[in-house]
Every structure is written in structure tokens, then in C-alpha cells.
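$ run holo --ligand "PBG" --emit C-alpha cells
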Amino acid sequence: MMTSSMLYYANLPLSMPRMLRVRASNTNDNVPIKKMGMSDEECEAAIVAGNIPEAPPAPPKPAAPAGTPVVPSLSLSRRPRRNRRSPSLRAAFQETSLSPANLVYPLFIHEGEEDTPIGAMPGCYRLGWRHGLVEEVSKARDVGVNSIVLFPKVPDALKTSTGDEAYNENGLVPRTIRLLKDKYPDLIIYTDVALDPYSSDGHDGIVREDGVIMNDETVHQLCKQAVAQARAGADVVSPSDMMDGRVGAIREALDAEGFQHVSIMSYTAKYASSFYGPFREALDSNPRFGDKKTYQMNPANYREALIETHEDESEGADILLVKPGLPYLDIIRLLRDNSPLPIAAYQVSGEYSMIKAGGVLKMIDEERVMMESLMCLRRAGADIILTYFALQAARCLCGEKR
Ligand code: PBG
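-- output --
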């Protein structure tokens, strides 16, 4: 699955041409060097005797354009540009790398047979769980992306105020997990734990008549949802709901049912962000009223992310996630520096759509901006990145042209 060229490219700077090959010597190697038939001793003796063989002269100093000012050189002890002056040096000193193994591919699924395009997310589809999804997973695996996360579009008729469809063992997500695990036993399947796709109110939790999102009652439902997903074969359950205490409760529920091996990736610092707009269109999961500000974090807050980090750590989370990604690089770095746990970043739908739109309008180079944004998330401290670009970026890392 992983080719050596993929690993090679993964460590190169983004600007390096794909065709580049490391060669033992440079451009003159098609001029045959005539062997003189001398032994090593004879060669050494010739040198000692002052018979120095010819080698090409050092290249002349390249000319500056006419009009270049003649100035004394600055007396600098450090010239950082020295380490950036050639592709090989830049590759040697590159601090961060990006590989398909770092990527998790979020996929939208529905009950239909056809794949329906998502208007606000060019290139993304609601995939038919039995056909389109299986093909997409196979394409991703071909380029080294072996981790996915599933988001279901649930029929309106199955949505209720308590979101009970979330733990239907024969619901869309558990059914899909079983199908995928049957075809690809080694595929890593992440699931989303939250009520919004199943809630007639479009909220991540149960809404009381006065509009309050009920915490502990919601956590009770989330535990049942996580167990149903684990029973179907999920590898990592990911609570994205932001209720208090859900990580510990889910850990206990999983363990009680014998799912000690199932990991929890907690959406630790999930902000009440407008960058989720296209996603809510994709799932038709816009809150019917109000917003998510009583459970998702205030985008103005930084230190508060440490409270969530400490809670999730002590409740037994295996992976901590920050969401959105690029506008929240400082939060990724904060978690990275304050926890030994692996860190995930979610490059969300709005971030994806902005890069796509800029590319379509020819305002930016889509592929380069995509790769740079992913590299920056890694540099900020993300081990893994959830991104709708996973397949496209992995193809790029493999040197495949689209
Ligand atoms: C909901 C959920 C959301 C996303 C992932 N899980 C939306 C929300 O919180 O409203 C957003 C992902 C994206 O925008 O790409 N539990």
C-alpha cells in the first residue's frame, strides 16, 4: 500500500518538483570518464610527483544585473538563508512531515444507492453506504489512508427529541461499520458520538422545553450510542457533543460491556464556530432554534481549553481533538504542550470549502494551499488530521496527479 516514493515525497518540502531524483553525481555523469589503467599506488605516486590530473574549474561567480549597487557585505555571524539555499538542504532540515498515515477521512453516508453531491462542499458527497462508500474507502486505502470517520444523514422520520435512533444497533452507522469491517478488517473506523444527526431539534443533546440542553440525560444516551457503535466494530468512538463528564461515562459504559479495547477520541476543545456551516447542510442538521453556545466553547477563549484538557485526561480519553483547525492553531499548540496524549485536529467543512472555492475561482492554487494548511496543522502539534482533503492530499503525497 505504501510505496517508497510516497515516504520519500512525504519528507520533501512542498515546493520540490515531484520528478526530482537523488543522484550519485551531477550533470556531467553522461560524459564517460576514461580510465587510465593505473593502480591506486600509481595514482598516488603521480600526485606526489606533482602530476595533478585535471578536474573542472570552480564555476565563475554569477553576474548580478546591471545597476545592482556595489556594497560592502554585511558582517553577519548568522545567515539563516544558508540552510535554505537548495532543495536538498531544505529537505534535510525540514522539521515537520506529512504522511497519509496522519490523515483521517470524514465520510458522509446515507441510505440511498446513489452518491449525492453536497452543494456547499465541492467534491464531497453523501455516499450510498453500500456502494459509493465502499469504493471511496478502497480508493483511500490505495494511497495509504486507512482511517475514516462516519457521519450519517438520518431520515427525518427517524429523528426524535431524545435521538434514540443513535443507539439502534441496526441503524445506518452500526450497519455500515459491520459492512466495512467485513470487507476491510484492518480499516480503522472512527465514529461520531453526539445526538445532532438523530435529534429533531438539531442539537447535540436533549432539549428541555425552556431550551436548556440537558447534560446528564444526554450523556446517558451517548453511552448507549457509543456501546452500539463499539458492538458493531468501531475502533475509536469520538464524542463531539461537548457535554460535561461524557468521556468518563462512555469509558465506564464501554468497559462494562467488554469494550476495553475501544479508544475514545474526545472533542476536547470544540468551539461554537461558524466554520461548521457546510457540514450542517451536508447532514441537514442545523439546530432548529438557537445556537450551540451553551455547550461548545466560546471562540474568544484560550485558557478554558486547559480545563477541558484536564477533565478529558482524567476521565480516560485516548486522543484529544481541537476543532476547527487552522483558525485555532494556538489551541492545538496549547494542548500539545500540556498533555502527553496524541492530539487530533479537525480541518472542518468551512475551512475545506473556502480552499475549494478559492481554487475554483483561481484566486489561489488549491493543491498547494491544501498541502500547506495540512502541514501547518502538523507543525502546530497535531498528530492526526481529520480532513475532507484526505484522499486528494494522500494522492498528492503519493505523486499521483489527479
Ligand atoms: C456534530 C458535529 C459537527 C461537526 C462534526 N460533528 C457540527 C456541529 O457541531 O454543529 C462539524 C464538522 C465540520 O464542520 O466539518 N456533533
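-- notes --
The first strand starts at residue 103 and ends at 110.
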